[in-house]
């Protein structure tokens, strides 16, 4: 078999477009200051399962990116974390959605790894593994570090939800001079914004029909 280079169109079509990266705690499920250490403590936020189904129906691919230090702190076994994620993905699938992959940073802050958000490591690993087009990708998070992580990786669009740490994050981001592209009440509202086609780039990306826009401000 002869090898050949892909042409521009073939290369573009081989990429995964319309990816939505989601933080876990405070976005999909209720957060806890004491960590989610077992299945009983994992509780979907209202409307989040349906929101994930709507993303799938609109042709978006969902990937979860989450810092989880509880195993490293001795608060839970790594197997329990895997069990929680298995159950979470199964519940999402049963509701008609799909989580393609889950990336975890298991490190403590003092380990200075390259994957703990706001560092871009998890997003870059996901991009390499799944050939993700960041220009049509979105990050949904409830914390400053989620939005910063997306900026640091070059993900085109950011949505901050006001569940979880969201309210505090609004103030902190403003102090940092960073503005997410959209501020949503919760995950269902974030999905409303993402799946609604926009008439112009100024109105913000991505929408099924629209290309990526520019950040509305900040770095
Ligand atoms: Mg969070």
Structure description:
With 219 residues, the chain is of the alpha/beta class. It has one domain (15-201): Rossmann fold, CATH 3.40.50.1000. It is built from seven helices and six strands, in the order αβαβαβαβαβαβα. It has a six-stranded parallel sheet, with helices on both faces. Strand 4 (138-141), helix 5 (144-153) and strand 5 (157-161) form a beta-alpha-beta unit. Helix 2 packs parallel to helix 7. It starts with 7 loop residues before the first helix and ends in a 24-residue tail after the last helix. It binds magnesium ion (MG).
Radius of gyration: 17 Å
> Main beta sheet: strand number and arrangement?
6 strands, parallel
N-to-C span: 47 Å
Q: Helical stretch count?
A: 7
* CATH fourth-tier homologous superfamily: HAD superfamily/HAD-like
Net shape: globular
CATH topology call = Rossmann fold
CATH class: Alpha Beta
Global structural class: alpha/beta
Instruction: Give the strand order of the largest sheet, numbering strands 1, 2, ... along the chain.
Output: 3-2-1-4-5-6
Order of helices and strands: HEHEHEHEHEHEH
Work out the strand percent: 5-15%
Number of domains: 1
Instruction: Let me know the average pLDDT.
Output: 90
The count of DSSP E runs of length 2 or more, i.e. the number of strands, is: 6
**Low-pLDDT segments:** 207-219
The kinds of small molecule bound in this structure are:
magnesium ion
Helix content: 25-40%
Quickly give the CATH architecture.
3-Layer(aba) Sandwich
